[in-house]
Specification:
This protein has 505 residues and is of the alpha/beta class. It has 2 domains: 10-232 and 478-499, 3-Layer(aba) Sandwich (Rossmann fold), CATH 3.40.50.300; 243-462, 3-Layer(aba) Sandwich (Rossmann fold). The chain has 15 helices and 25 strands. It has helices at residues 22-35, 63-72, 103-107, 114-131, 156-162, 177-187, 190-193, 214-222, 273-276, 306-315, 318-327, 337-341, 452-462, 472-490, 493-499, and strands at 10-15, 40-43, 46-48, 52-54, 60-62, 83-89, 92-97, 100-101, 134-138, 165-171, 196-204, 226-231, 256-261, 266-267, 281-286, 297-300, 302-303, 332-335, 345-348, 356-359, 366-383, 398-411, 416-421, 427-432, 440-443. Strands 13, 15, 16, 18, 19, 20, 21, 22, 23, 24 and 25 form an 11-stranded mixed sheet that branches. It has a 6-stranded parallel sheet with strand order 2-9-1-10-11-12, sandwiched between helices. A 4-stranded mixed sheet has the order 3-6-7-8. The longest helix has 19 residues, at 472-490.
């Protein structure tokens, strides 16, 4: 009798803290393995992010795992991120389990969720290990958070369950990297320490020779070698939480400046990534009324809590300021939650986000009501009215994206439907002429700026004469290869693959 095939080994990327570059390194390692002929899948047991993507089966996963799957050359699926936490308030998060909203888990106290979610994690991971030759798993935050150890389902619990080979990553650009690596190792139990196979110093700037003798000293104290010093790299790939997308102002000095309202629960900020590489265009955060001055256009991004973010805009004076600037000719764009904010009202009778009704900005003749059922789907959309579409995109033009929303939006007589579902004709976006270049428009379709026709037409209307030469999807593929090349040349990659006994040619 033949024995059952051995489950695929797990290479795990953990960090000394949040934001040290785990997601990008995981994507790079997936790309490297894929290019070497290994059937590889990414995995993150639990992700906390309001940047979500939709899989082909209509489930939500973290945007980072979506990108990692693309890097691995496979279709993104919910097993790659079985638990997604989407913050709705400072002390409340929606729990998405296997791609769908889980009411029971959402209502449970944080520390009691493990018994419900851990079986989901192990089942998803076992499924991937049975279908692939290698799983590259990503941790969350730090494994040394002793207050979270009992409820852990994403760090050392995963590593122990799979006997993973763990790489511990630190962001050396922040400083204190060697202390962070040693401190993380020292706070773990011996059973956990034995799983650490290598340290990685990420985002290094300078001469690596100046690091000596610290790597050798660290190995002498821990028995764990430094297997890579990865220099800082600028890239255009989506970040897990979206924040670094607009750290300051991209393309500083550009004549055309587009503001992005940075409300507290902004989501799906990777919608803006195709704009970052456009020559002649600068993006900048807007969080106070004075920051509206000098803008050519304004974007209201997605929101995980539309009512709360509308209230925030009123509290800081942005709501009135935006209305004033819009009347004077500043074109405003709303994406998903931002689209809902542009209307007359947002009602939430069943308390999906926050019970009650709030007034919108009144820039579009639309009203939105929140429904208990969330729409999550990949969508093929079609330009319904080219005259009302951004930049005059041609009637009948089809584009692809995805939807994630509870809102059901209806337009009045003064709002023109410009985008519809190519299959069932559902209205996905409305526009209003306004006085500024391009007018006001909103849309439920995430990924709208990834469509070259729509993006370039809108930018022309704003006065951006030049456009990035490559199509956005091609640019993402090139960026994945460029980042993978960068990591491969600065990591002892053969040694890393030896850790998991995966032959790579």
């Amino acid at each position: 009798m033949n024995s059952a095939p051995r489950p695929a080994p797990v290479l795990m990327i953990q960090g000394t803290g949040s934001g040290v570059g785990k997601s990008l390194l995981t994507a790079a390692l997936c790309r490297i393995a894929h290019r070497r002929g290994v059937a590889v899948a990414p995995f993150k047991a639990q992700n906390m992010s309001n940047n979500a993507a939709v899989t082909i089966e209509g489930g939500e996963i973290g945007r980072a795992q979506w990108l990692q799957a693309i890097a691995a050359g496979v279709e993104p699926e919910v097993a790659m991120n079985p638990v997604l936490l989407k913050p709705m308030a400072d002390t409340r998060s929606e729990v998405v389990r296997m791609g769908r909203h889980d009411a029971e888990a959402t209502e449970r106290p944080w520390r009691s969720r493990r018994e419900l979610l851990w079986p989901t994690v192990t089942e998803a991971l076992a499924d991937l290990r049975n279908r692939f030759e290698l799983v590259v798993a990503e941790g969350a935050g730090s494994p040394a958070e002793t207050n979270l150890r009992a409820s852990d389902i994403v760090n050392m619990s995963v590593a122990r369950w799979t006997d993973a080979a763990v790489l511990l990553v630190s962001d050396i650009d922040r400083g204190g990297s060697f202390a962070s690596l040693y401190g993380t190792w020292a706070l773990l139990d011996e059973a956990d320490r034995r799983l650490f196979r290598g340290f990685v110093l990420n985002r290094f700037r300078g001469d690596p020779a100046l690091l000596a003798p610290a790597p050798r000293d660290l190995e002498a104290k821990t028995g764990v070698p430094v297997v890579g010093v990865v220099p800082w790299i600028q890239h255009l790939l989506p970040e897990e939480d979206g924040g670094p997308t607009l750290a300051g102002e991209s393309q500083a000095g550009s004549r055309v400046r587009v503001g992005v309202v940075g409300y507290p629960r902004a989501s799906n900020l990777d919608d803006l990534d195709p704009l970052r590489r456009e020559p002649g265009l600068a993006l900048r955060w807007v969080r106070r009324p004075r920051e509206l001055s000098g803008l050519t256009a304004l974007i209201l991004p997605g929101s995980r809590n539309t009512a709360a973010d509308l209230r925030w805009m009123r509290e800081v004076g942005l709501a009135d300021a935006i209305r004033g600037w819009a009347v004077d000719g500043l074109p405003v764009v709303g994406l998903c939650g931002g689209y809902q904010m542009m209307g007359r009202s947002v009602a939430d009778p069943e308390g999906v986000e926050e019970e009650g009704s709030v007034a919108g900005l009144g820039l579009l003749d639309i009203d939105t009501a929140m429904a208990p059922t969330k729409d999550t789907r990949l969508t093929v959309a079609r330009i319904h009215d080219g005259r009302a579409a951004p930049g005059g995109a041609p009637h009948g033009h089809e584009l692809e994206g995805y939807e994630i929303h509870h809102g059901r939006t209806r337009g009045g007589s003064e709002a023109t439907p410009w985008l519809v579902d190519a299959g069932d004709g559902r209205v996905l976006g409305h526009s209003s002429p306004g006085r500024g270049r391009g007018g006001h428009w909103g849309v439920y379709l995430h990924g709208i700026f990834g469509d070259d026709t729509v993006r370039r037409g809108w930018l022309r209307a704003l006065g951006v004469a030049e456009h990035a030469p490559a199509a956005w999807r091609d640019e993402v593929a090139r960026e994945l290869d460029r980042v993978a090349d960068h990591v491969e040349s600065n990591l002892d990659i053969e040694r890393v693959f030896d850790f998991v006994e995966v032959p790579c040619v």
